[in-house]
Amino acid sequence: MEAVIVTGLSGAGKSQAANCLEDLGYYCIDNMPPALIKNFMTLAINQKSSIEKAAFVIDIRGGEFFDEINPCLQDLKLMGLEYKILFLEASDEVLIRRFNETRRQHPLSDGGETLTGINREREVLASIRGISDFVIDTSNMKAAKLREEIKALFGKGEDASFVLNIFSFGFKHGIPLEADMVLDVRFIPNPYYITSLKKLTGNSKKIQDYVLKFPESQSFITNVEKMLKDMIPCYIREGKYHLNLAFGCTGGQHRSVTMANVFAEKFKKEGIRITIDHRDL
């Protein structure tokens, strides 16, 4: 019998994750006291239940019961049951906005500032985040994208396909918080200073031709492509089924967009699932 422990920060999307897992055939229980998970699993096995996989949403709403999560995980190991821990998080700014939009109070804010509650929660959850099998940052993720991520992770078991999430951005607007790897392409001559190209973007063939004509651009593509092809199998082996790759230039209009498009096309041809987001266009 398989089990998924869904946990993470309040407002990060745990309910949406549970809904998706339920659609994938998981028996889902929200706000489950950790100490009861062993009893549930034992009951399901002994009664030869039709339940083959279950998902439990556990978070700080459980109060003092949440402290029992580590003994619970040890019990599951002793029972020989397989489980994965899915941890959802988001940036402080996004979580604050979500709480404001829903007009709900953070469970650890004690009626005070939402940020105070978020900081407390991060401290409480730090240990379980460190042992989680999958960590998903939902800061810039729509519900459909989160469902896609979860389906990739749990829809096909160990054969879940790897997802390469590619971003372009401008450094003057800040580095994407969700980026696992940031590649700075500001060393390439900037088409912004060419009058006829200034108002175009990296989605234009004229810009692409300009950016890609330089030897340093081609060398960069060759070296980064080789590095990623070497690294992706290692990520998969370690249980990481997505990589957030961000290309940055000054304004996020020309060079970064071009490179994001180039790598999206290259790895799509390799059969890797791709998402692409030109953040600052």
From TrEMBL:
Binding site for GTP: 59-62
Stored Pfam families: PapZ_C, RapZ-like_N
Domain RapZ C-terminal residues, every copy: 164-281
Keyword Transmembrane among record annotations: no
Gene Ontology MF annotations: ATP binding; GTP binding
InterPro entries xrefs: P-loop_NTPase, RapZ-like, RapZ-like_N, RapZ_C
UniProt keyword list: ATP-binding, GTP-binding, Nucleotide-binding
Binding site for ATP: 8-15
NCBIfam families (alphabetical): PRK05416.1 (NF003828)
The protein, known as: RNase adapter RapZ
Gene it is expressed from: rapZ
